[in-house]
Design goal:
This protein is mostly helical and about 80 residues long. The protein contains three helices and no strands. The N and C termini lie far apart (about 60 Å).
Length: about 80
Amino acid sequence: MANHKSSVKRIRQEEKRRLHNRYYAKTMRNAVRKLRATTDKAEAVAMLPGVQKILDKLAKVNIIHKNKAANLKSKIAMHVNKLA
């Protein structure tokens, strides 16, 4: 158990932040998975800006690395462009 009030508070804050980050990271993964599973071009084109926005926001607050966000955006854009 922590010996200082500040470390007890820090533990509480870290747990809360960890759960918050996990929620948004999982939401992002599900959105990317859903987009990749889409075979309809019109639907994929409509989903693309929303997924890119999620990736940019998570990269901005360091939930995911900026390069990972860039790589995912590139891959999903290529997927959408390949759809007929």
